[in-house]
Amino acid sequence: MSKLLIVGTVAFDAIETPFGKTDKILGGAATYIGLSAANFNISSAIVSVVGDDFPEADLKMLQQKNIDTTAVEIVKGGKTFFWSGKYHNDLNSRDTLDTQLNVLADFNPVVPESYKDAEIVMLGNLHPLVQLSVLEQMSVKPKLAILDTMNFWMEDAFIDDLRKVIAKVDVITINDEEARQLSGEYSLVKAARVIEKMGPKYVVIKKGEHGALLFHKDQIFFAPALPLEEVFDPTGAGDTFAGGFSGYLTKTEDISFENMKNAIIHGSNLASFCVEKFGTERMENLNRGEVQKRLQQFKELTQFEIELS
Ligand code: AMP
């Protein structure tokens, strides 16, 4: 069976939305990716770092989902990565209030021996040099390397490192605002073309409640987001999408463009659950029946018969 190697932050988040506010709760890109990919019953491992202020119970929760956390380094006396954000009333945009790299600032990732031949590598959001180092440690070239990142790493201090890792991956997943920032193009079609020239053969642009686009050469595929009655907290939706996308490709062992379309649907489906509760709560308690039922709703939402004359 194929394996999925996940890299990304394991973090504390403090979130404010129009519906409420949380103190430090469990968050981080790798946390959301892992929880989402776990829905496919695959073998996965997280490479990350936390301080000794990080609760053991949270690591245990990930392990219970069959996620290998032996490569989550615990730094003695160190403080866990902290991020705080505030959402605007439309919930589609947010301001980052604080980012404290803490133990992430001098993290040297070590890929476990048993994952150096993982078929799929999901480089979740964190320092681009950490993402690059993980790719370089692979003993077998992965069938597919997928990269997710955010505007924080597009600032002057990191952009050269980010470009280095972008040049080495097959797929990039970013949101619309970041695609525009990275490419300098307003049109997402033009932005995807510019980004493809930087290295990735496939560009996925996430548009929050407006769905996601997959670009590959001249082909474009679009998947809507499921219209939801209740959205409480969009934090982690992008990572949950990436976890569903990479988890499904790992499970099916098929990295064709056609199968990536299904992967986009699975990613969107799982992300629709993530936003229903604060933090990771919904993803921690999700069951197979709920996932299948909503997948059916997705199918009905997008299926239509049309006569072309
Ligand atoms: P998303 O809502 O999918 O963009 O992801 C939100 C998660 O990303 C939160 O749980 C944060 O802990 C994490 N995060 C925020 N900023 C960064 C950053 N600069 N690098 C890595 N992870 C981050």
Could you describe the 3D structure shown?
With 309 residues, this protein is of the alpha/beta class. The protein contains ten helices and 15 strands. The protein has helices at 29-37, 56-64, 128-136, 159-166, 176-183, 188-197, 237-252, 257-274, 281-284, 288-302; strands spanning 3-7, 11-17, 20-21, 25-27, 43-51, 67-68, 72-75, 82-87, 94-100, 120-123, 144-148, 171-175, 202-206, 212-216, 219-223. Strands 1, 5, 6, 7, 10, 11, 12, 13, 14 and 15 form a ten-stranded mixed beta sheet that branches. Strands 2, 3, 4, 8 and 9 form a five-stranded mixed beta sheet that branches. Strand 2 (11-17) and strand 3 (20-21) form a beta hairpin. Helix 1 (29-37) packs across helix 7 and helix 7 (237-252) crosses helix 8. The longest helix is centred in the last third of the chain and has 18 residues, at 257-274. The structure holds adenosine monophosphate. Adenosine monophosphate binds at residues 9, 11, 13, 27-29, 83, 99, 125-126, 150, 152, 235-239.
